Amino acid sequence: MGGLNADWLTQLAPPHAPPAPGWWPPAPGWWGVALLLVLAVAIPLLRWRRPAARLRRAALRELKQLEAASDDDVRLAGALEQLMRRYAVAAYGREAVARLSGAAWLAFVAEHGGKELAGPPGAALLRAAYGSPAAADRARWLKGARGFLGARR
Question: Which of 12, 51, 78, 111 gives a 20 to 30 Å CA spacing to 140?
Fold first, then answer.
C-alpha cells in the first residue's frame, strides 16, 4: 500500500462551478404562470363586455317571436311597448328611462335607434298599447322596435 498518498484529496482536480443560469428563456413553469396571468385578465374583460350583447340578442329573439305570434295589433303594440321598456331599463338604467312617457319616451326611443317610431307611428303605437283606438302600422312599429333593440349603446 505504499503507492497511495495519504493526502489523496489534493490530487483531485480543482472544483469548477457551473455558470450561473441566464434569465432567458424562462423555465416552463414561468410560461405557465404567464399564461394564467393572461387568462386571469382576459376572461373578466370578455365577460364584462358580453352582457350588453347578450341582452340585445335576447330582446331581438323575443321581438322575432312577437312578430310571428301576434295577429292582434293591440296585443302586438302592448307587447312591443313592454319589451322596449324592459330593454331600455336594463340597457340604459332605471334612472334614465323610468320617468319617460309619451313624447319624451318616443324621443328617447328615436334617439337610440328607433327612428321609425318618431312622430305619428310612435304615437299610434302608444295609443294602441294602452287601449285607445289607433291606426296600426305594424311594419313601422316592428322596424322601429328592431332599430331600438339592435342599436349599440
Answer: 51
